[in-house]
Structure formats: structure tokens, C-alpha cells
Write a structure and sequence with these properties.
Layout lengths: L1 E5 H11 L14 E7 L2 E7 L3 E8 L1 E4 L1 E6 H9 L7 E7 L2 E6 L4 E6 L21 E6 H12 L13 E6 L4 E6 L3 E6 L3 E5 L6 E6 H10 L5 E6 L3 E6 L2 E6 L20 E6 H12 L8 E6 L3 E9 L2 E8 L1 E2 L4 E6 H10 L4 E6 L6 E4 L6 E5 L6
Helix pairs in contact: 1-2, 3-4, 5-6
Length: 380
Amino acid sequence: MKFKTTKETLLKGLQTVGGATSATNSIVALSHVLLKASDNLLQLATTDLEILLKTEIEVETLEQGGCLLPAQKLQYLIQTLPSAKTKIEITLKDRKVQLLVEETNSNFQLPVLSEKEFPDMKGEELETNPQRIEIKLNSTELLKVLKNTQFAASNDAARSYLGGVLLDLEEDKFITVATDSHRLAMHQLGQWAITNGEIGNGQSILLPLNAVRELIKILPAETTVKLSTDGNMAMIGFDGTRMATRLIGDEFPNYRQVIPNQEEYENRIKLNRQRLLNCVNRATLLTDERTKKLLFEFTPDLLTVRVEESEEGTGEEKIVVENSGNELTIAFNGDYLAEILKYIEDEEIYLDLISSDSPGTFRATEEANYLYLVMPMRLS
């Protein structure tokens, strides 16, 4: 293997696939990146056995071939070169890779592994599986709904069924949902189309949180994304890059059961999002570190956010609101509430409430393509 490229080109490829390496696994190949040169293209790939990342970059191929190189070391060497246009020549010879950099008069040698040691996740078989469901999406919209739901997923390994983002597919809807049982985020995607298979009575896939967050890092705006799934794995492809991921096999809870019907709400409170967020952030500073508990006391035209007395202090702040219902007091976790408010893009929002022991629901209008739900805390 021998090829020429630039720092800018090679670094972009390494950064695209870098998130799927594993330095802690006993399988040495998982900390390496596969480089495979042919026909003036360099294929780069990494895997941690849960996620597979592959991409291609244009290079000047002098000799075809491939090998595995230590991913972090290679990326650091390339990243610290002085100029984006710095020319690099990489040669595989006698089970070692020589990296020549003319501009800095540098010559590095790295040990390699055989490309045969790269694990096979078999994710690419999805693209030719006739039983697959295949969907085309707009990357900007997909990025938006994934970013605005993933924060609500659980990091608790013991509850793996909550550790991901659900893609709930129906004949005319594509919904993303995440919950940790304390809060729930739900978004509906606008532009999408089925290009293979049939959804029929609905198809849900549960993407692991690590895969979702890695996808958010590498997915560019305004491009076409192809999502394929067979129910066990998913393949996401765009612009010469592909991610394969194992799906979470556990069943996601029935999220529709916890979302109240519109006619159940007793109170609808109109709020300014930024004003409420600032108030919640200030008040949470004084809450008990273990509970982060805030009291919300609603009257027809006023909200009082109150902090119960704790070692951190106490306090209250009043906000003018429009409340269509009666007086009501409810308690929420300040951190959960602030995070929800941070991800809402509209400034004029509504909080719908039933009672002090029922969840609160945030949305902009009835037609809004998103909904956030936060569970209440017990009043003293």
C-alpha cells in the first residue's frame, strides 16, 4: 500500500470514523483504523463491535493494499502537522507503515496489524437484504430531531431499554422518542420517504444512545440520508460515509400511555421560554443537591417559583403568566426542567397540567411537531 494525500483530507476521514474505536477492549484491532487504498480512493473504517463506521476519501494511489494502524496515534500525528495543505505520503512495507511529511522534514514509522484482523460486523449486508426497510431522510431534519430527543435517554446500563432513541415508524409519521422515566422528549420528522419494504402496521427501532450521539457528530447538514434496517441492525449512509449499529433488543415502554389526552388538562399556562429558563436556573442554585426540587405555584395570572429551605438557601421568584385554569401547586426537578427548556426553540410556549401528581407537558401549539413531558415530584 502506498498513497499520497494532504493533512486536511486525511484528517477529515480519521475524524469521521474516530468515534467507533475502543482502547479498553482486549481485542487490539478495536483500537485501530483500517486503511485500504485502491483506484485513487482510501477507505477508512473502525468498529467497537457495537458501531461500525466507514468512509472514503480521494487520494493518489501509488500501490493498492491495506492495513490496520493505531487510530489515536495516527490522528494525533496528522492533526499536529502545521498546514492543512501539508502533503503526506504513507507507505506500507515489511509490516510497518512509513509516514513522510515533506514540509516538516518528518519521517515516522508505525507498527501495523493485518487488515484481516479487522472484525466483521456484517452490517453492510443490510444494503442488499430484500427484506430490509429503507427510508430516505433530510439530514438537517434528522439532526434536529435526534439532538432534541437524545438528552432525555437514560445512561443507566441496568435499564438498557431506556438507553436509546426510539424511531417509531408509521404509514404517515416518523417519530423520535427518548425517556429516562423522569422526562420524555418526542419529535416528529417532516420530510421522509420509504424507498424499500413496507411499514404496514408500524415498525419501531431502538438506536443505542452512543450510536445516536456519534451520528450527531458526523452527520452534515442538507444532504440525503439513507436508513436501512432489518430489525436487528441499522445502516445509516450519506455522502460516502456509512454507520452500522446493533439495535437495542429490549422493548421500549409504551410512551403514548403516559402522554395525557388534550381534554384531560385542567390548566393551560402560557409562558415565555427564556424568562422561565432563567428563573429556573437561578432557583435551582439554591435547591437541595440531592433532589433539585422546585415548587411552582400557579394563579390565574402569576407563577411563583419557590425553593424549599435547604442548606444552600431559600428564595422565590414571580413571573407574570396567562393561566386558563385554577390555582395549582406542583413540584419539578429543576435540572430536568431546565434541560427541556434549553432544547425548545420557540419562545412562546404552553405548559399543560392536570394536577399536582400528573406530568407537565410543554409544547408550542397544538400543531407543533414536538412535545416534552416532565414527571412531578411529591409535594411535602
